[in-house]
Recover the amino acids of this structure.
């Protein structure tokens, strides 16, 4: 058994955290559990802090309310409530034991056995607990595995996966974030053997895990492992262009910057059709679907002067920024891969121009609101863009008058 250092205690056992632990201690016990414990031991940035407790939800709600701590019943069927302190939510879950699973959901009963609760979790380094004194409870050598970068299932990997098939994707995701050296053989073998169960998962759950993997500092080894193991066809068969991701990551390293997970996904796709097929199958939001599709299109437009009918590279580039926005262009620059520093500098200097005239200027000249007004305004905007956004308000109004006289 180990104890956190004083520095680690200060980082993890903040005032709200201690308050929750102290309140529960009046009638039971609570410990911090899971990722926060793992991350504090590894010196990583802390995310959400979750708790496990011997108290059942009704007891928790009563106790916390008595201490004027607001609670939200976020998952009562699974023994989870959320305590809100200083506008931050902390999930607190009663110790549980599985009595039935179907690969997606588990039927649980409450228990007061900490090791039984740990045994139902997925990986050894996710089954770590810390109490209010900073003592770490480790039932399956999770501390050692965390420090060695060993992503290892608790118990039999086949059993863990058949309890929840999503654990296949979680294995590769955690390997991307924490893995060092060769992947655990037993885990990889079980993932391969049971990969045919992945289609039973909801598309949304698959998409979330995939994007979390791609958001890791270096997702290439895990993605390659998943592809070589034959897992990728069950998740994202369109995203097989590994060299594209490798190239993108090298550009990120050169610039000392990272791109979004969706951009990294785009680097793995061959074209716009692949992007649309993947986004539709994984039920991406309309916004993410459109972003992914554009990320396979815009990089090619950056060097395609034919899209604008001229050869003025800076002017063409400015038109693209105006059309697609700064954020999309930043990601497209990395995907394009040419003159990255120069183009990022142009992007940093960009001040979004605003068309100097508006619809009310047309209405003052007798054009009623409606389709024709919009059509005229768009025509004037096109000429303003073609002149590199330089025409002034007076220039645009003269063009409007000329347009009206020509009708």
């Amino acid at each position: 058994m180990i104890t956190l250092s004083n520095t680690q205690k200060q980082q993890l056992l903040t005032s709200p955290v201690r308050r929750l632990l102290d309140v529960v201690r009046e009638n039971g016990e609570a410990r911090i559990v899971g990722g926060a414990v793992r991350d504090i031991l590894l010196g990583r940035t802390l995310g959400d802090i979750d708790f496990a407790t011997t108290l059942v939800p009704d007891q928790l709600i009563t106790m916390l309310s008595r201490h004027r701590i607001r609670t939200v019943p976020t998952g009562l069927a699974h023994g989870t409530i959320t305590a809100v302190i200083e506008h931050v939510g902390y999930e607190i879950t009663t110790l549980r034991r599985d009595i039935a699973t179907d690969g997606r959901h588990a039927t649980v009963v409450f228990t007061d056995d900490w090791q039984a609760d740990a045994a139902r979790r997925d990986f050894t380094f996710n089954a770590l607990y810390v109490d209010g004194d900073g003592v770490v409870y480790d039932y399956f050598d999770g501390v050692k595995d965390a420090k060695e970068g060993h992503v290892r299932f608790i118990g039999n990997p086949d059993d863990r996966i058949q309890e929840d098939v999503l654990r296949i994707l979680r294995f590769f995701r955690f390997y991307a974030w924490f893995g060092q050296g060769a992947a655990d053989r037993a885990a990889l073998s079980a993932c391969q053997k049971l990969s045919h169960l992945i289609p039973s998962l909801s598309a949304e759950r698959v998409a979330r895990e995939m994007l979390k993997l791609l958001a890791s500092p270096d997702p290439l080894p895990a993605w390659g492992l998943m592809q070589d193991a034959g897992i990728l066809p069950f998740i994202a068969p369109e995203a097989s262009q590994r060299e594209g991701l490798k190239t993108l990551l090298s550009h990120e390293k050169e610039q000392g910057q990272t791109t979004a997970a969706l951009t990294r996904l785009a680097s793995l796709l061959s074209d716009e059709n692949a992007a649309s097929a993947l986004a539709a199958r994984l039920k991406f939001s309309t916004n993410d679907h459109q972003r992914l599709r554009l990320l396979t299109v815009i990089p090619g437009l950056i060097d395609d002067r034919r899209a604008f009918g001229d050869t003025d590279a800076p002017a063409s580039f400015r038109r693209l920024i105006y059309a697609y926005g700064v954020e999309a262009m930043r990601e497209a620059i990395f995907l394009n891969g040419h003159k990255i520093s120069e183009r990022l500098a142009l992007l940093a200097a960009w001040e979004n121009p605003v068309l100097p005239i508006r619809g009310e200027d047309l209405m003052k000249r007798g054009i009623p609101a409606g389709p024709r007004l919009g059509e005229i305004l768009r025509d004037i905007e096109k000429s303003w863009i073609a002149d590199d956004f330089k025409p002034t308000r007076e220039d645009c109004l003269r063009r409007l008058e000329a347009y009206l006289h020509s009708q």
About this structure: The chain has 22 helices and ten strands. The chain has four domains: 1-148, 156-235, 238-352, 354-407. The two ends are 86 Å apart (CA to CA).
